[in-house]
Amino acid sequence: MAGQAPTIGIAGAGAWGTALANAAANAGNDVVLWMRSPEHAAALAATRANERFLPGVALHERIRPTAALADLAGVRAVLLVTPAQTTREMSAALAGALPRATPLVLCAKGIERASGSFLCDVVEEVRPGAPVGVLSGPSFADDVARGLPTAVTLACRDAALAQDLATALSGPTLRVYHRGDVRGVEIGGAAKNVLAIACGAVAGRGLGESAKAALIARGFAELLRFARAYGGDPETLMGLSGLGDLVLTCSSAHSRNFAFGQRLGQGMSVAEAAGGKLVEGAATASALVALARAKTIDMPIAEAVEQILSGAWSLDQAVDALMNRPVKSEQ
Ligand SMILES: NC(=O)C1=CN([C@@H]2O[C@H](COP(=O)(O)OP(=O)(O)OC[C@H]3O[C@@H](n4cnc5c(N)ncnc54)[C@H](OP(=O)(O)O)[C@@H]3O)[C@@H](O)[C@H]2O)C=CC1
Ligand SMILES: O=C(CO)COP(=O)(O)O
Fold first, then answer.
1. Distance CA 290, CA 161 (A)
2. CA-to-CA dists, residue 85 to 15, 123, 134, 184, 263, angstroms
3. pTM of the entire structure?
4. What is the pLDDT of residues 73-103, one digit of tens each?
5. Which DSSP string corresponds to 174-235?
6. Is 246 helix (H, G, I), strand (E, B) or coil?
7. How many angstroms from the chain centroid is the CA of residue 5?
8. CA-CA 20 to 30 A from 133: which of 91, 125, 196, 323?
């Protein structure tokens, strides 16, 4: 990439897109930060802050907000940071704006609900032959934006590209590891959100810390089984994007997925519990469970979350179902 301007493009200026923009700028890059609303872009440019999604955080001076996709045309790589379910429409829009060689790095965590496709497969369908990567790991936007030490993983099938992008994005407070296992990294991010809803529900219902720890451990076993069956490397799942993110998201009410589960556990309806926030695990649960069933992968916790979300089971029924499964060997 010698000779190219060190500019990173970011599509999506919510909490995570804005935090990543600041981190990329801190790492020495110029950043073009795209959002769909021209009014929002004008507000960011005028106030040098994103009060709607990341209040109290100043926008780095090297970030240029824009609502014109064409402004991303010359960048070194684009990080796609809009919700998982917008991946198809956003990659199609970006396909029209970017040269084929520009890598697209997915930062959303989920599985496409309508098709049951992994997000990287969606991007590859829409931009055949173009380089695709995934960035994922334990990282609350607020922490990254405040410059607290954070580590994530960036995976591309092209190992040299993964290393190059990880180096470009790593800075004083964000450490980016690189890896070749795209599938493993994206599975970790997508599935942990569903499991975090279960952990939140247990906390909300007051079922105790022991139950939460059991869910994390047994949830991790589900993650491993699923990843193995769908071509992820189990070693990836032991790392930041798997176990690391599962532990973070299952332990903190700062997570929207955990907080959503917590409110379900306190007795709110599914609609009330979301509270207008993005809850990726709720959007992905049915697709995850359908993929698991298609390969007869045993994922009772993910199944229980899906049954609660679809209204088939109450939380108490889900707990009963999990506790009364036949006694088995731990694996
Ligand atoms: N927040 C976090 O700590 C982390 C989030 N992530 C992941 O990043 C992804 C985004 O999360 P986050 O930034 O927190 O979400 P937010 O809700 O904060 O922001 C979502 C952003 O996506 C934009 N958007 C929504 N729909 C569309 C669309 N159809 N077309 C274009 N833009 C759209 C919104 O724009 P508008 O304002 O116009 O609606 C907004 O800028 C999720 O998959 C999440 O799991 C990953 C790691 C950490
Ligand atoms: O993915 C995240 C942290 O790594 C953010 O989780 P939530 O979407 O649950 O807030």
1. 33
2. 17, 12, 15, 19, 23
3. 0.97
4. 999 999 999 999 999 999 999 999 999 999 9
5. EEEEEES-HHHHHHHHHHHHHHHHHHHHHHHTT--HHHHHHHHHHHHHHHHHHHHHTT--HH
6. helix
7. 28
8. 196
Cβ–Cβ < 8 Å for 288, 178? no
* Pocket around ligand 1 at a 6 A CB cut-off: 12-17, 35-37, 40, 53, 81-84, 86, 89-90, 107-110, 139-141, 278, 280
Q: Which residues contribute to the annotated binding site for sn-glycerol 3-phosphate?
A: 109, 137, 139, 192, 245, 255-257
CA–CA separation, 156 and 148 (whole Å):
26
> Which residue of 136, 150, 192, 245 sits with most ligand 2 atoms within 8 Å of its CB, as the best mutation to test the pocket?
245
How far from the centroid of its chain's Cα atoms is residue 331's Cα? 27
pLDDT of 6: 73
Q: How much distance in Å is there from the Cα of 15 to the middle of ligand 1?
A: 7
> Per DSSP, what are the bridge partners of residue 33?
10, 65
Q: Is the ipTM of this complex over 0.95?
A: yes
How far apart are alpha carbons 176 and 158 in whole angstroms?
A: 16
Residue-wise pLDDT for 237-267, tens only, equals: 999 999 999 999 999 999 999 999 999 999 9
Provide the angle, in degrees to the nearest 10, between the axes of the packed helices 280-294 and 182-204: 120
Residue range 179-184: average pLDDT? 98
Confidence of residue 3 (pLDDT cuts 50, 70, 90): very low
CA dist 284 and 306 (Å) reads 9
pLDDT of residue 123: 98
Query: Above 50 in pLDDT, residue 32?
Result: yes
User: Which ligand number lies closest to the CA of residue 199?
Assistant: 2
Round the average pLDDT of the chain to a whole number and report it.
Answer: 97
Domains and CATH numbers, the chain: 7-180 (3.40.50.720), 183-323 (1.10.1040.10)
Q: Is 277 a catalytic residue?
A: no
Which is the closest atom of ligand 1 to the Cα of 13?
41
